[in-house]
């Protein structure tokens, strides 16, 4: 059995709305090139993504919606016709062959699932996935198909396992949460910037599930301008408690890299420190509770030059038990990509220190987050005692 596989096909880059749209999968190419430059990723580690079938996508999406996406990608749909489905909007514009491109991202995540659950590898990474805002019959927030929702349904149907979904994207993982809100065999955990300031506006601590699924949805909404220490404290305590409560058979982590200070779409003040630690704890707990069964996907991350390649590289090096990269980035990589980057690249694995001016409200923000964490942990422990 391999330690981990890296799911990737160059065609995953065809999931592209426009040259100016903030969602840009060029970040996949940047990350792979960085990992290869440091000798952490070899061609034999890479497994090509496959295309998900319509039947597989329909595990989490209406067949009628799938047909709408196909029409949009073939120039057979007006913006007016697409609007009820979230297609042809400012967030999710139409582009050529959008169904085919989206099905490849979903298939990549299913490929990762099968690699782990068929015993080919302990872990699997599909950075092209993590499109967590897609709904059953509607696109949302740059996400056409929700590969994580499809993958979890696929795991349930094909393998009959209990799934813990962990989402550390700065935006709440709403599409996945609502897909399994009444399902007691899927637990969702999301740490995100509070919806008071940020799309999609959900992810309140009171969103706890419904019916038989009540008590399997956990949210940790953090305040704008939250820094590393507070973020990691919430992550570590929340993760440990939820793993201990739910005892999953397999864990699927969504690794949006948009909680960083440089990200243009969010208001959090994370640094590369959090992206070193997030996969470390996921890896450790996967071995403690799931026999190592860990599937990871990408997600948000809109500073594709300075943040995403460094952040996502840490997932792969952690999965494969390689040393955490430190020191300077390869000169060859910096020289190659600085020609294209609109901003000066960060030449080191760590961020400059200090990265930003001190925050006047630091103590207040940390206190608010600590109170939220206390309430959230109380909810988890109450559910644990109830079960």
Automatic annotation (TrEMBL):
InterPro entries: AcuC (IPR003085), HDACs (IPR000286), His_deacetylse_dom (IPR023801), His_deacetylse_dom_sf (IPR037138), Ureohydrolase_dom_sf (IPR023696). Residues 21-318 form the Histone deacetylase domain. CDD domains: HDAC_AcuC_like (cd09994). Pfam families: Hist_deacetyl (PF00850). Keywords: Acetoin catabolism. Pathway: Ketone degradation; acetoin degradation. It comes from the Bacteria. PANTHER family: HISTONE DEACETYLASE HDAC1, HISTONE DEACETYLASE HDAC1-RELATED. Belongs to the histone deacetylase family. This is Acetoin utilization protein AcuC. It comes from Solibacillus merdavium.
């Amino acid at each position: 059995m391999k330690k981990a596989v890296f799911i990737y096909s160059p065609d995953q880059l065809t999931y592209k709305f426009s040259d100016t749209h903030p969602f840009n999968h060029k970040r996949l190419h940047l990350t792979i090139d960085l990992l290869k430059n440091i000798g952490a990723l070899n061609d034999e580690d890479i497994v090509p993504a496959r295309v998900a079938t319509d039947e597989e996508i329909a595990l989490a999406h209406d067949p009628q919606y799938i047909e709408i996406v196909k029409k949009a990608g073939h120039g057979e749909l007006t913006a007016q016709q697409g609007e009820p489905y979230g297609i042809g909007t400012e967030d999710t514009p139409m582009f050529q062959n959008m169904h085919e491109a989206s099905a490849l991202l979903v298939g990549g995540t299913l490929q990762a699932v099968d690699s782990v659950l068929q015993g080919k590898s302990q872990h699997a990474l599909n950075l092209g996935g993590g499109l967590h805002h897609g709904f059953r019959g509607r696109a949302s927030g740059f996400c056409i198909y929700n590969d994580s929702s499809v993958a979890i349904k696929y795991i349930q149907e094909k393998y009959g396992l209990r799934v813990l979904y962990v989402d550390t994207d700065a935006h709440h993982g709403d599409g996945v949460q609502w897909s399994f809100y009444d399902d007691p065999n899927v637990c969702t955990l999301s740490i995100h910037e509070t919806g008071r300031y940020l799309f999609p506006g959900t992810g309140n601590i009171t969103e706890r599930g419904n019916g038989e699924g009540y008590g399997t949805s956990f949210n940790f909404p953090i305040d704008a301008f939250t820094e590393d220490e507070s973020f990691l404290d919430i992550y570590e305590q929340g993760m440990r408690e939820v793993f201990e409560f739910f005892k999953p058979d397999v864990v699927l982590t969504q690794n949006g890299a948009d909680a960083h200070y440089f990200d243009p779409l969010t208001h959090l003040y994370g640094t590369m420190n959090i992206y070193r630690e997030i996969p470390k704890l996921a890896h450790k707990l996967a071995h403690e509770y799931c026999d190592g069964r860990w599937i990871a996907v990408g997600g948000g991350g809109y500073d594709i030059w300075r943040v995403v390649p460094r952040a996502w590289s840490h997932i792969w090096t952690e999965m494969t038990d390689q040393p955490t990269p430190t020191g300077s980035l390869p000169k060859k990589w910096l020289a190659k990509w600085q020609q294209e980057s609109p901003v000066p690249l960060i030449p080191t694995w760590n961020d400059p220190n200090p990265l930003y001016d001190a925050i006047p409200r630091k103590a207040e923000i940390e206190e608010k987050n600590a109170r939220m964490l206390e309430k959230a942990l109380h909810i988890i422990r109450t559910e644990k005692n109830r079960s």
